[in-house]
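Quick illustration, no need to memorize.
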Amino acid sequence: MVFKPLLKVNSSCMNLTKFPLNPVVIINSEKSYSSKPNVTKKIYCSTVTITCLPSSVSSARVCNNSASLPLNWRDIQGLNNWENLIQPLSPLLQDEIIRYGKFVTACYEAFDLNPNSKRYLNCKHSKNRMFLEVGWGDCGYTVTKYVYATANINVPIQNGGSCARWIGYIAVSSDEEVKRIGRRDILVTFRGTVTYQEWIVNFMSSLSPARLDPNDPKPDIMVEAGFLNLYTSSETNVRFCLGSCREQLLSEISRLLRIYKNEELSITLAGHSMGSSLAMLLAYDIAEVGLKQPSVPLTVFSFAGPRVGNVHFKERCEELGVKVLRIVNANDPITKLPGIIFNESFSTWRNACYAHVGIELVLDPLKPNEDETNGMSGIMIDQRIKKGVNMMEYFKIDDILCVHDMQTYIEMIKNCPRRSRIRRKGVDMIKKLIEMNMSSVAWIYVASTLVVLLTILV
């Protein structure tokens, strides 16, 4: 099958390498996602180049950090909202973020995008061999269940197959890993957007009441309609006999909690992009329906996650004790959506405004040019222009896609400076560009790029 690309992009920096013009066609990639690219990834809007490192962290460092993990795992899971662990970034937290990021990367590597395969749009491997097949047989976890999701939208499905798509997996730490990390860890990971149906879900950016607790619907708590649709819709094709993504997840997590009820437990959810949104919904759901004991930590590691719900959703998650660490590339536009205008900065219209949940760890390669406010100063931008830096690099579509890529996130965390930061008010880049009196040709380029982003991702 041949696709006509909408834009020419740097495919090594994308999870989704081709975007078809035909809405009937499910998105495919001729080459499966790889977490070990052989190219150097340059992040524009910065003064550094992110160079790919070996996939494994330094063994000496892991050994040293692992020794303290059994004693400090609750802090790493957000017991105190990662206080004193982010600025500067704790090496132990840094290694754990990388570890959970690799679990998410495994979703992409195991996802079958070959339309001629019998496992097309499902996992390429059986549960007991998945980690081995993606090159991480010693990860210390065992997959207990694959998770599928479908959206309740009318989109023709290629080859007449099931609407359900493999979206992630549930795994549990082994006895040996329990000794290393200090507890039995129930892990759920989700990949990001790949299929055309999932892109349509991303278009559904209106807020809808979550109503996940039948005994107390709480209509003020609202979440993005598309993510909720994907989370709660059931499979109609009897081939797999699947319930909704939600039913699969709650059933398996409940089973594992019963099995290991006499052990020290943690529940860790990790996802990238759309997958981080599903992780957020699951975390809220687990806490709201009381699936776990209050003593069991519930933590979300969100990579490149968009906003999921309104201010009431944010406040309820905090009230329920859901711990969320949002890992954000400062140059990633997806993390500012939806609610690019109407968001948590508005004190009114609380029902209608999106809000981020949790603590935000910003990966910002602009460190050398920061001023005392931990932000890139307007003076520095002007100086870069005077020195002939091409500001249009800020808006190159391939690099916008690259900064959202999961592998880019992992490499940036590996190369993270010792001093990281919690987001503060940054520079309004659009305002700065206006002040620079850019040419009409330049503005056409900027406008077209923004239109593509908003069309695909809002």
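The longest strand covers residues 141-149.
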